[in-house]
Structure prediction request, 178 residues.
Amino acid sequence: MTKIVLVGYRGSGKTTLGKHLASHLNIPFVDTDHLIESKAGMSIPEIFQKEGEEGFRLRETMALKEALLLNSAVIATGGGIVLRPENRILMRKSDLIVYLVAPLSVLVERIRGDDHRPPLTSLPLEEEVMTTLKQRIPLYEEVADIILDTSRYSVEEATREILKKVKKEEACSEPLCS
Prediction:
């Protein structure tokens, strides 16, 4: 029984790494953004347009609660999930919270042209990321059990680093845990 929650800014690698990690652990992968879209029957930009950020954040909390009901899962969260104190408390019910980071230039490059996420401010992308990170970094750090820079590792290497930190032996399968 293992629940690993991945947090970090968009473009930090939560979905890519989460799928890979879940595959190696042979447990479900849940992306809270996809869960929100599935339940709402609309995209995240549509939710923001119709319900505003507050409506989206409420849906995000419900998706997190649902994901945490699973006995085992790797859960990739939306970048702003840490903004609500309730979510930070809920995430602590997991076995491990991994904060994925990357340098500003890497994040900007990874998310440039991503129409799936609405702009968070009216600022140019690099300024938006910098401004938003200033607000969120302390919150990511508050919940994190470990911090991993995804720009320094391949997906396989990052998976290995996380598996080293997983405390339950049944969650760790050889040879990745060496």
User: Anything to note?
Assistant: The two ends are 20 Å apart (CA to CA). The helical segments are 14-25, 32-40, 44-68, 85-91, 104-111, 125-143, 155-165. Confidence is low (pLDDT under 50) at residues 168-174.
